[in-house]
Structures are given as structure tokens and as C-alpha cells.
Amino acid sequence: MSLTSVYLAEEALALPPAERETLARLLLESVTPDRRSDEEIRRELSARLARLQSGEDKGLTFDEVFGERA
Fold this sequence. Notes:
- By secondary structure, the protein is an all-alpha fold.
- It contains four helices and no strands.
- It has one domain (3-66).
- Helices cover 69% and strands 0% of the residues.
């Protein structure tokens, strides 16, 4: 493992448990193939956009997405 990978692992392990869990989920999802077709993905994204534009889905604030700014 490279020094960069060791550094990243140390930083990840220093995160609070909930953040480590989120990171682990994201990492696992990044190596799991998405079996949806391009058309299925387009339909899902179009549906999400429509919910945002209609106000049905309020979306997230900057702070909800990125957490506290340091």
C-alpha cells in the first residue's frame, strides 16, 4: 500500500463512527457495478429533477451536504 493510501486509511479511521460508516458505504458503492441501463438512469435523474423543480423535494442546504465549514 502506498504512503498516500496509508495516510488516507489513518484519516478515515480517525473519523467518528457514523462518518466512517458513510465513507465505507460510499467506497463499497464505488466498486459495485451499476446494472441500470443509461435509459434507466436518465429516467431516474429526470424524475428527481422534476421533484426538485415542482417543490415536492426541497433538496438539501449547502451545510446539510457539506457539513460545518471549518
